């Protein structure tokens, strides 16, 4: 996604060096003078953007292995109408890749070839203790048992915190499992890259902005064809039993040949066993078949809201 | 749901006195000589039923406030084909109601009227310390601050464990927050019932069995009309891009007038951003419109599986 703006205040889910931070940097490059601020939780990002304390927010939406981030869906559902102006305006994909970071061995590094990419453990004899978030131990089990077996392990509250501790250790005998970004931000050496067991794990992030109107902000001709746009909408069904309403609502998209790219449901918060549905599709309002489908959808659903329209950035492998 | 069977071995998600235990007792009453065994995690229940070590399993499926139990959905998705014979054969609903359990005050109970249902705290002066799972503290905040303010709180691994500790305390000065079932199983007095802040919170449980065939096990005429049956099916879409396939698949249900009662999606485990969809609907195979819809669905989807058919027990408030 191309962000042409300069100097935006961007709130992202911290801490610093998190994968969300990486997504924020990819989308809002430092060369454009954006101010990126880590925020401790996702609701605070919605609040910051709704109250115009930040122009953009970057939040995790779904992981290719673990599925949707339900807290983000519930905030988008906005059952208490706290975030009426929040609209998605972009997406970003970041590969979840863990690195072993620390200090390269000073006593042996001259006499041994240095392979940044070698996970063999040849350069890791000086590493005596390891720091990371508990989840990272389980995600890197094969590497840990072959390359650094028997080392003392210390749990930390985040992988970023692990990097911070290791950066402060002047002895150079500790190492952290964290993101590549942490190497840069904390000035650490990459002892072994890409040490996670499951390759190809990826997280998708949403970019949100404050946008009081839900109409398309730009004419159709602006950028690419209609099919390179994606939109997200939510809807609920009438309270009283209307058999077939969900099937009817979904059938509307099939009728107009709209490509649904994902679908989720969550409790609506209105009453037990009443749901809010999230539908993501290719296209956007202003495009004939989308407008026709949404007009027809209105006759079936209780409430609906478009939650945003953005240029698909192609980072998603297939569909 | 009426379970006519006797003497079944039933595995449920423990510990004893959990809400799943309550669902198991409601469905498999002790009067019919069923053997109910607590099992420490949900995968072990699938394994027990798949291997015929248990004839039935009872597992949480969704909560009216928190939504679906994704671990249960992922086990039903069965991406490694470990549980090919697992089929749902029933559902049970249990209201999540917390109780303060302990020993009634012996020194004052004779001189004061005893109101089992009074949450006023009048009979709670002898309670000096509280035990429960951390989640229960936050779910009962208003009661705790008005009826038993300032008491020592001890976190336990489950609400059942709290009841066990309090039952062992002969001084009678401790109390536990747990289910009503715990009062019965641990021989404790109800000091205050229904102390949770959010009323109406309910969990839905699935009953699973080992059933190598997916055809209906009983003729349509057996019990009630077709609309009192519910079925669950999963499907995935073709690997290569087939725009509109999801909308087409969902449109099939609308076309045949089938009432969808819930819908979920999870990562399929096949590759990133590929999903498995779960559709629950009224009706079952053997019923004309369902058979027609499933036949048409097959031409759109990559794989699909019926995950079970059961009599809707009506415990669900509305739809």
TrEMBL record, chains A, B:
GO BP, one annotated term: L-phenylalanine biosynthetic process
A matching Pfam family: ACT
Catalysed conversion reaction: prephenate + H(+) = 3-phenylpyruvate + CO2 + H2O
Residue stretches of biased makeup (Polar residues): 107-121
Keyword Lyase: yes
Sequence ranges assigned to domain ACT in this UniProt record: 234-311
UniProt organism field: Tothia fuscella
Molecular-function annotations in GO: prephenate dehydratase activity
Example of a GO cellular component annotation carried by this entry: cytoplasm
Ranges where the record places region Disordered: 104-123
Protein name: prephenate dehydratase
